[in-house]
Structures are given as C-alpha cells and as structure tokens.
Batch of 2 targets.
Target 1
Amino acid sequence: MTHTMLKGSNIPLEATAVRAVLRWTPGSEVPDVDASALLLGPDGRVRSDEDFIFYNQPRHPSGLVRHLPKKRLAGGLTDTVEVELAALEPSVDRVVLAASADGGAFGLVPDLCVVLYDAGPGPATDPATGGSEPIATFDVRPETGDETALICGELYRRGDGWKFRALGQGYATGLVGLATEFGISVDEGDAAEGDPESRPQPQLRREAQQGQQGQPQPEPWPQPEPTRSPDAATQPVQPGYGYPPPAAHPAEPTQPVQPAYGYPQHAAYGYPNQPQPGPAVPDPATGHQHGFGPTALPPQGPQFQKNR
C-alpha cells in the first residue's frame, strides 16, 4: 500500500533499505535538480564531510548510502539516493533527503515529488524505477518559489526502527546554504553557475591539509628582464667596490716630428745642439783652424770679430 504524504506527516518503515526517488518534469526553462543525502548525528550535524552524499561525492565510505545516476523516464527525470537503514552505525541518528536546483529556483520546477521505495530483497514490480511498489509519495511544494534548495524529507530513528517524515523545508541559499546548515565545509571558489562539473563542492579540510605536504611547488613567476636605454652600451662600466678600474688601451706610439726641409732641427729647451766632431779646416787668412772637432770653436759672426 502506498502512502500519500502531507507536509509534516510521518510513517513507520518496515524496510531495511529504501530508495528515495526525486522526480520532476524537465523543460527548456526548468532548472536542473539534484538529489542529495546528509547523515546526521544526535546533535543534528554531520560527523564529517564524508557524511554528505551528492553528485560529486556519490558514495559514503561505508557503502551504505549511495547517489545513483539520473534517469530519463517517459514522465520526466529522476535522481535517486539509496540508504541501507538496518546497517547504519548507531551514531547516525537521521538521514536528510534533500534537493538543490541549478540555474533557477524551485518555483520553476513543475511536478516535483519524492517517491519512496523498498530497496530490500524482493521482486521488482515497478518497471519505471526498477524498485518495488512505492511505500510513499510526497508532492513537494515550495513555499515562496524562490528556494534553490529543499529538504524533501528525512529518515530518522524511532526506538529500534526507522520512520519517514515529509518536510518540504526550503532554503534560498542553494546547495551551499543547505550544506553549511548541517556543518559541511564547502569550497565554492571554483563554482560556476550552469556548469555541473564546477558547482560548489565540499572539500574535506583534513584531506586538503594533508595533501599539501609532498605536493610539487608551482614554478616561480618569470620576472621581466630590466630594460636598458639604447645608449647603455656606450656608457663606461664602473668597477665594483674594491676592484681597480679596467686598464685603458695603450696609447699609440707617436712618431717624432721631422723638421721641415731646409730648417735645422731644434734642440730641447736647455740643451744646445752639440756639434758633431769633424776635421778642422784652416782659415787661409789667419791660419787658425776652424771646424767642428772636439777643440774647434764654431765660426763667429762679424759682430763678434775684432777689427783688424
């Protein structure tokens, strides 16, 4: 027998495992819808980020809660979560069944409902879902139409068994607000609207911190080369402190200046020209010898000669 649920109503569950199927009618202006589940402790919060099961983390480490791929049926699209209730750890007090809309609010999603099936051993009598006859159905109606996340219902412990409660509680902050409400650490730095591969993803902080060790460091950002003025090559290179300046190029040897033709060579200042030794020449008038020998005097001009 299938129970038609109203908001706030609950029913006991005899099934040891359930399959919660979220169903809606798609369209060109209809946002995409995703199902998710959160495993909560007695304090109403997740024990760790691994307790959030959704499209980017489709399987709990225990394997007892799973997110299944979407299916297209004749009457619409479905997104499914399976929970093995009987095998869950005693520290799990509730399992929240949630939905999030991507690309718009739930006011644009028609025919949204949750169908609960018995996923335990038994014959499959519903060809549309591959499950047994539905245990319950709940038509989810957003209160304002601006909600982008909804808690459709919850599975909770009651004594030694489990019960299902229909809720329909909405959030205008989307999947991020829904996750943080229950203690999930969400990294939304790379979230891009409309891209299912880059939607907000919770990152396990302990794993992220451990993963930083041993990871290769990024290459340093290349620094631009210093600019030089066009005439920089012509500037003299200054030596470093404590180093002698570079040796100058040796000067080209200078050639002695030859005197002009017909002019005697001038002696350096303070040094008269020394006559070259040579043979004495006798003066026919006086008989004295004149010449440039070692004892000969140079010829004198008329102003230095006595009148005879």
Note: The mean pLDDT is 76.
Target 2
Amino acid sequence: MSSQGSYQISTIASNIDKEINRLKAQVDLFWDKEFKRYVEFGLEDGMKIAELGSGPGFVTENLLKALPNIHITALEIDSILVEYAAQYLKENQFDRYEIVQGSIMTTGFPDNSFDFAITRLVLEHLPDPVGAVREICRIIKPGGKAVFVDNDFEMHIMTFPSFGSLRELYEAYCQSRSEEGGNPKIGRELPLILKRGGLSNIDFEVISAHSEVVGDEKFFKSEGIGIPSKLVRDGFLPSKVLADISVQWRNVVKSEDHAILRQLYMAVGEKMSVGEV
C-alpha cells in the first residue's frame, strides 16, 4: 500500500497527459453546481482558502476566476501534478495562490490558518480518511468550514438504456482501489467521517450531472479509456468485458432517448471555537 493512497497519476492510468485531460473534464462536468454549493456552505470572496489534494490546478483556476480577492494555498503530494499545476497556473497568469508539495495527513501548516478548506476526490483514496479530516480541522480557523467532495461507486455513472457490463467495470475499479487502501464507496460515509474528524454542524448534499442538461461530450471527456485499460492489464477486468462496454456505450449514445447521469457527494463541517466545544 502506498503512503500516498490509491491515486498516483503515474500508475493509475495508461497515459499521464490523457489522465490530466480527464481530470479537467471531471471538474468541468460538475463545476457550476459544485461552486454554488461551496457558496451555500459559506465560501466568500476575500477568504484564505486551503485546497487539499489540488491535483493539476483546475479547481484552483476556477476559484481564482470566480473570486478576485481570495488567496489559495494548494497542497498536492504528487510531484508530477505539482509541477503541472505550477506551470499551468503561471502560463495562465494567475496570482493569489501558492502550491505546496506535501501530504494531507501532515500538512505542516500552522493551527487556525484558513477560513475555508476544499478537499475534492481525495478521501476516497486514503487509508485513514478520519485522520485527514482531523488534520484539516486543525488548520482551519474556529468558525471555518471544510468541504469534502467524493464519489460513491455504488451510484456512479448510470445510463438509459442501461447495461450490466458497466457495473462490472466499477466493481473491478473498486477492487483495485481497495487493494491500494482506498474506499471508492466512501460518499455515503462522509457525514460520519467528518464528525469523527472533529467537525460540527455537518451538512450533506448530492449533486448530479445529466447528459440532457450538460450534453454528452462532457461525459465522454470525463471518463476516457485510460483507467479501464489499466484495469485489464492489471488483471482486475476481463478484456471481453471492456470490449462489451465499448459496444454497449456506442449503443447508448446512438439511442435517440438516451441519458447519462453521474453524481458527486459533498459534505461540509464547521470547526467550533473552544467555548462552543
């Protein structure tokens, strides 16, 4: 098991550049609804924000565009993604941010440093998600909020018409990630994990993306073939199942009445002040 958890960009997919493009599409797919929830949960302009597990910098970019007076500290453990984000944000001439390479488990940031923390698609890859929440609780200010966004692969992509081999793919993915210390079905557990990590006033939301609303293309870009191909090579998924998925996926898209649906799970908690604990 890697100390980095079950996601490392150099090993999770068959092509790093394609995986980075998929990560961008995964942000684009949900961003409008996701950002609205951040604001509802307490995100305001002028805040000092921690983004934990910031990846290639696409969420950082969107936040900087939307809120002209924030400052973001982006923490990422993967050196490839740190280097990419630094170059990407510099090329796009952003400021008001810093990128730090380090672990969400031991950030090294002082106590009570941030007004708001965002941790997106990270807890599901960690062997100790409660420990990560506890560390984030430490670094946000009393009254500060921490939001966690994750998947639950029991309800991942659904289609109409539906087809069974998609379920086989997700079970193979879950087995692969679980063997690396992750929990791809963590979405339903988020409120309790936040509570055990020391946060209070917890709330929980599910946001959805639907092909009839956002179009098919965003779904195509946010999935890709890199991870399924790697699952076949690593022995988690039979090649005939992947071949069937390709055929069935084309049949779905050809159907005049087709639908593609995906969810993300969001939980928010507040750090209480000493007198309120």
Note: Strands lie at 48-52, 71-76, 97-101, 114-120, 140-150, 158-160, 200-210, 259-270.
